[in-house]
Amino acid sequence: MAHLLIVEDDELLRDGLSAQLMQAGHRIDTAADGEQALERLQNDAFEGVVLDLGLPKLDGLTVLRRLRLRLPALPVLILTARDGIEDRVEGLNAGADDYLTKPFNRDELLARLQSMLRRASLPAFGPAAPPPPPATGSLRVDPVLPRAWLGNEAIELTQREWSLLDLLVRHSGQVVSREDVLAVWQSEPGEAGGVASNALEVYVHRLRRKLAGSTLNIRNIRGLGYLLESASAP
Ligand code: CA
């Protein structure tokens, strides 16, 4: 018996699954869209999630990525459309433990769910945690949202500062050119190009201040670009 969350916008399917899983002895909560799902996950502790990927308000993949940040070990089984091979791959990459293709056999769902829960309850054989977000020193950058942490402390970042930091972290140890940064900024929704090159200096300066107190420093490599370096690097 486990406390499970079923996230499915199709009411018939949701009710059917709930009834079946309750009959199997589980405690069930449901959510009908992505936002509701995150809300439920925030307010309650679950031992497993059945997550439809096609959801209103916030799609299932986004829900999965967000919940993984906080709950790296929570078993999640995703439900995907028959032709959604890319969704399936993306879902597994985003940290789903298993998937079923719609329409699925209810008994198979139950069997997969049981085995997923069993694996999760055996620490030595538990599902592999998703790869940790890129880390440098004690810095962690959220791979999706404009957020980052230094140790346990959250750093307040604007979208542009976050993109810059994310780029530097993903290429830490390498020089990131000014053109690379500007290209990323210009590709962002809502950023209608025209980012002045000298604005970059301002963002780098702000980011440096936000990293002050850490071992990280953004070095200006004259004529080339920027390099994220860690003072404590071996
Ligand atoms: Ca759906």
> How is the main sheet built?
5 strands, parallel
CATH structural class of the largest domain: Alpha Beta
> What's the count of strands?
12
Q: CATH H level of the largest domain: which superfamily?
A: Response regulator
- Helix proportion range: 40-55%
- In sequence order, what are the helices and strands, one letter per element? EHEHEHEHEHEEEEHEHHEE
Low-confidence stretches: 124-135
Query: What do the pLDDT scores average to?
Result: 83
Strand fraction equals 15-25%
Structural class by secondary-structure content: alpha/beta
Shape: elongated
Question: How many distinct domains?
Answer: 2
Instruction: Supply the CATH architecture of the largest domain.
Output: 3-Layer(aba) Sandwich
Bound molecules: calcium ion
Please characterize this protein's 3D structure.
By secondary structure, this protein is α/β, with parallel strands linked by helices. It has two domains: 3-125, 3-Layer(aba) Sandwich (Rossmann fold); 135-230, Arc Repressor Mutant, subunit A, CATH 1.10.10.10. The chain contains eight helices and twelve strands. A five-stranded parallel sheet has the order 2-1-3-4-5, with helices on both faces. Residues 124-135 have low confidence and may be disordered. Calcium ion binds next to loops.
